[in-house]
Amino acid sequence: MAGGAGLAKRLGTLLSGLLECGAFCGIIFGWASLVFVLKDLGYFEGLCQPSATPGPNLTLGSDCSGQDEQFSLVFTIGSFMNNFMTFPMGVVFDRFGTTAARLIAISLYTGGTLLVAFSTPELAVLLFPAMSMLSVGGILLILTNMQVGNLFGNYRSIIITLYNGAFDSSSAIFLIVKLLYEQGLSLRAMFLFLAACSAWHLLRTLFLMPRSRIPYPLPPNYDYGLQCWGRSRSYRAHKDKQTPGEAGPEETPLEPPIARGGDVPGTPFRACACSWLFAWHVAWLSVMQL
Question: Which of 281, 224, 217 lies closest to 252 in space, CA to CA?
Answer without folding.
Answer: 217
